[in-house]
Amino acid sequence: MAATTQLTSGTWQISLPFQSEPGIVGSYLLAGNNELAIIDPGPGSTLEALLAAISEAGFTPADVTHILATHIHLDHAGAVGSLIQHTPNATVYVHSKGAAHLIDTTKVVASATRIYGDRMQELWGEIRSTPKERVNVIEGGDVLTIANRRLEVHYTPGHAIHHVIFFDVHSGELFAGDVAGVRLQDIDYVRPPTPPPDLDIEAWSASIDLLKRLRPDVLYLAHFGPTRPSLPHLERLRERLLSWGDFVLGAMRDGKNEAAILAMLKEQTEPELQRVTRDPQALTRYDIATNYPMTVQGYMRYWQKKHPERL
């Protein structure tokens, strides 16, 4: 079951039980002015839990008027095409670079199947296309008046080319998706999620600069939950994003293959997380949120594609 937590008078956090683990994948509900918005509805495999959470918060699926995707990765927006069947009054909002892949999920499913194989259904559930007429394309610079809020849309590539954040300038709440990293609750450790194919370190660093200029009071992370203070968190994220990238680059220049780099990165980085948490399960939980194989693959593709001259 999902766990629903009311954060403010009009904001709820939903913990979706991804791979049977709570507190790793989350959605947010915004309510006001007879409107109900869902930010990042999560994967199709947790759709039933999401619908139950909407009821737990005191609403029905028919109350949902807006579905907002920070980006189209399956752990954030895989459920959209199925959810739209339960929410007859809802419009989907997604960046222009991701909209086509929600309207026709063929390429997304094919790509994910090559990676996850027999685990597709277990991890992601049903991945359905979203009718074009239910999709509203957004761009950085747009302002959405939703649920009695004024949400600024800011384009924040780096993790994904179709990534945006939603910022409520009046409340200081920033719904960050993955661009603000992975930091599980009650653990003072932020990790960069760097899957292929879109990782761009320079673009991500610029996106971090943008978030810092907004000076949010709180970052609402998809993985996972409210994070304060925002500015030190973002600088720690940037430091780790760069240092892990340099580590992978050095190993590639030494001729190491992917398997060797994966083992080296784990050996280099896991002890710090162990010191912070003193909980072996935390390693597993962080790896569910953003695993080492995808991390290494993302960095390796980045260096090969963006900076082959440095290899």
In short:
This protein has helices at about 45-55, 75, 80-85, 95-105, 105-115, 120-125, 200-215, 230-255, 260-275, 280-290, 290-305; strands spanning about 5-10, 10-20, 20-30, 35-40, 65-70, 90-95, 135-140, 145, 150-155, 165-170, 175, 220, 225. The protein is an alpha/beta fold.
In total, how many domains does the architecture comprise?
Answer: 1
Broad shape: globular
Number of strands: 13
**Largest sheet geometry:** 7 strands, mixed
Distance between the termini: 47 Å
- The main sheet orders its strands as 1-2-3-4-5-6-7
CATH superfamily: Ribonuclease Z/Hydroxyacylglutathione hydrolase-like
Under the CATH scheme, which class? Answer: Alpha Beta
